[in-house]
Write a structure and sequence with these properties.
Structural class: mainly alpha
Largest sheet: 2 strands, antiparallel
Strand order of the largest sheet: 1-2
Number of helices: 3
Helix content: over 70%
Radius of gyration: 22 Å
Shape: elongated
């Protein structure tokens, strides 16, 4: 049976490269999400330009809110695709580490 030494695994250059690659995607995505998400309540609280009509009786605030739903779907789709890539990377890493143990 394979016993994993997680400290040793975390210290390997390939695992560190994996974490760096994952962080390079997740951190900017999370920052973009939070800025985009919280900008609507902040902008509508302090500025009136989002309350002006954009299309007929629909204001810019409503269009911004709909854009937030679309942004959530797009980000979740992109993350799902990247997560599949991360899973492949982890599977290859596990094979490499098992090969080193035997």
């Amino acid at each position: 049976m394979y016993k994993a030494d997680y400290r040793q695994i975390a210290a390997t250059p390939s695992f560190q490269a994996f974490l760096k690659q994952k962080r390079a995607f997740i951190v900017p995505s999370a920052i973009f999400f939070f800025v985009f998400y919280f900008s609507l309540p902040v902008l509508t609280s302090y500025f009136a330009f989002l309350n002006k009509p954009a299309i007929g009786a629909v204001s810019w605030a409503w269009l911004f809110a709909i854009a937030q739903f679309m942004m959530t779907w797009v980000l979740s789709t992109v993350y799902t695709r990247r997560a599949a890539h991360f899973d492949q990377y982890v599977s290859a890493l596990k094979v490499d580490l098992k090969g080193e143990q035997t």
